[in-house]
Amino acid sequence: MKRDQLISFFFIAILVFIIYEVICIFLPFFTAIFWAAILSFSFYPVYTRLRNSFPRRNNFTAFLMTAGVFLIVIPPFIMMLISMATQVIELSQGAYNFIREGRLENLVGQIRSFTWFQKIESHVFQWGPLKDGMAPWLLNVTKNIGALAASKMALLTKNAFFTFLNLFFMTFLTFVFFKHGEKIYHFFYEIAPLEEETKKNLFFQIHDTFVAVIRGQLLTSLIQSITAGIIFWSLGIPVPIFFAFLTFIASLVPFLGAASVWLPMAIYLLVSHLYIKALILFLAGLFIISLLDNIVKPAIIGKKTKLPYFLLFFGIMGGMKLYGLMGIFLAPVVLSLFFALIRIYRDRYFS
Questions:
Q1: pTM of the model
Q2: Do 298 and 227 reside in the same domain of the chain?
Q3: What is the pLDDT of residue 144?
Q4: Quick one: 324 exposed, middle or buried, by C-beta within 10 A (0-12, 13-18, 19+)?
Q5: How many Cα atoms occupy the beta-carbon half-sphere of 318 within 13 Å?
Q6: Which pLDDT value is given to residue 211?
Q7: Nearest CA to 41 among 321, 249, 329?
Q8: Alpha carbons within 13 A on the beta-carbon side of 340
Q9: Could you give the CA distance from residue 69 to residue 307 in angstroms, rounded to a whole number?
Q10: 159, 185, 208: which is the final residue of a domain?
């Protein structure tokens, strides 16, 4: 091995080791870094306009944006989280009482009285085993949900110090990303060991995917969940904040959508003989809640991800299992990069 090759190999080995050590050092703060990056990226267009209006006050503009983001986003989110946990406990307790008092059997009897359901029952499945096993299973599920929500609330209260510590890190890092965001981006762009054209395509793909997921999908899901929550509350549906949160999560996942929440609720109202409320919820869900997905999302993101829906569905579900809530954002980026690299590989070696 030549001297220059040995020096290059030694340098790369040291660099890889140091990068690994740096990652290990900052890994405990990964969640705060990630969410700070998401928040700053989401509001970066607003920050850019403010910075252009006040070019000599970069620190003040970054501080103003950081304060605005955390005053607008964080307090309502914490209040919603506490309210939702409380409603989950109430919902599980109500469901437990509903099943224990025998009202589930009455509801099943009402459903079985419908002619159309009797036809389905006689041709599709036997109701007996399902009926016998449903009540114990639902009792166990509702008790577990309530216990889980109570334990999470207790854990949040117990770890309040670490929660506020992470919140402090997020605030500081959001300010840093606002102020030095372009420098950080250009730093990683310049050190990427790729050819200029390949580097440009990959970084554009990452940017477009984040725009699609954060400014499009996230905003669309937020609008749908707020709209659904208002409709649920106006119809007197119990725990509307909890079901609005379920709408937010479901609308983030392709194929599921907001209809996977409002449609079963409309059916529940129908079998409960609340026909007017069921009709209102069905029409509002069809022409307002779900229609927003076809209006807001294309207007914001168009077709930036260029990924098939079935791949997004499995990718997001797998990403959520692997990374938690961060998987909603990370999975589309990983999939987009995968296909971008495959295209570059095909064009370079097989064209």
A1: 0.63
A2: yes
A3: 56
A4: exposed
A5: 10
A6: 78
A7: 329
A8: 22
A9: 30
A10: 159
The identity of residue 212, as a single letter, is A
Angle subtended by helix axes 160-191 and 44-53, to nearest 10: 70
**Residues of the chain predicted below pLDDT 50:** 124-125, 127-131, 134
151 in the same domain as 203 = no
Is the domain of 348 the same as that of 217?
Answer: yes
Helix axes 127-158, 103-112, angle to 10 degrees: 140
Query: pLDDT digits over 78-127, tens only?
Result: 666 666 566 566 666 666 666 666 655 566 566 556 665 555 555 544 54
Rounded Cα distance, 48 and 68, in Å: 14
In a domain, 310, yes or no: yes
Question: Rounded CA gap, 29 and 23, in Å?
Answer: 10
Nearest to 313 by CA among 258, 230, 273, 253: 253
SS3 of residue 56 by DSSP: coil
Number of domains in the chain: 3
Where does residue 257 fall: left (phi above 0), alpha (psi -120 to 50 degrees), or beta otherwise?
Answer: left
Does residue 170 lie within any of the structural domains? no
pLDDT of residue 218: 77
Domain that holds residue 139: 87-159
Residue 184 covered by a domain: no
Handedness of CA 138, 144, 146, 152 (dihedral sign): negative
pLDDT score of 41: 84
In this structure, the answer to whether residues 203 and 142 fall within a common structural domain is: no
Residue 312 forms part of a structural domain: yes
